[in-house]
Amino acid sequence: METGDAVSAVVAFAGQLRKDGAAIPPTRVHAMLHALGELGADSLRSVYWAGRLTLCASPEDIDRYDRVFADFFAGRTPRPRTRITVEPSYQLVATPADPNGTGNEEPDDQPRQVATASRQEILRHRDVADLSTAERAEVHRFIGLLAPSGPQRLTHRIRPAARGTVDPRRTVRAMLRHGGEPAELRWHRRARRNRKLVFLIDVSGSMAPYADTLLRFAHAACRARGGTEVFTVGTRLTRVTRELRAREPSAALAAASAIIPDWRGGTRLGAELKEFLDRWGQRGTARGAVVVIASDGWERGDPLPLAIQMARLRRLARRVVWVNPHRGRAGYVPRTGGMLAALPHLDDLVAGHSLAALEQLARILGTDEPSGTAPPGMVVIDA
To answer: Whole-model pTM?
Structure first.
């Protein structure tokens, strides 16, 4: 399907859903077009899921969506249906008494309409550990639409550009093609490429309510940019990059889960971080990279080895971002031994407990400078 045809088809399809009674604002239509840009419009399956994830606001909309989708994309003329009118909800609210105490004012018998937040907006800010199975599945669908980009870095390669530094070789060659006459100056500049992005995700028992959601975020990063590496840590270090390269989130998570031997186990952050640096990080995986560690900081052993390895990592990496789900709680203060050992070596300390927090994490990863979200180190252990 060509780009212009896809846009026209999506607009017409959304219009047919509106005729069938669905309330679809223009923002949801734009979201479907953006999803099609990521999934591609070559297959009907991609079109179906792009629309279902963006145009359906609640489970009640799915039956209507399936019916209209089958009618519209099967080439049949949609059957005329009666438009469903949703009555606005009202709530009676108390009105203040007459300030003069006369009691002569006429009572306000008309109910007042009270604006409430949408279900999607409420889900964005809820802790994923408190969600039901259906709500968690809906949040996971939205995570699949995220595209964490990551910062870029300058390389030593030179590429032609419209402005920058004068390219003498290309300028001279242009002059020779014109018989030695002065020609237009040619310019070049250093090329840019994505910085490496590395995830270390804690899958221990204390992180069980969040590990699956954080792995889905890492999968979205793998799909959005090449060169992303993902490891799980607990009692063992497991590389799951290859498994998370599958396009379908459910298939990728199933493949990763099958090779992780320490789900809901203990935590040996210091030992696992040392193994990562010895086997992968020191050899280049962490050099100049943005390293994201997702853990609550519950270290089973002495926190001193973790402090030593965090100091090593800080010397290798461009930035170190720590994602702690407890960071999203009001009044949170790092108190665990692991967090206190890691804190002096962090550039950012962010929450990862909700969809809104993961959206903020995606924005932080898109910049090349610390966001100032890490509080000053409370305890500094000499490494």
So the answer is: 0.62
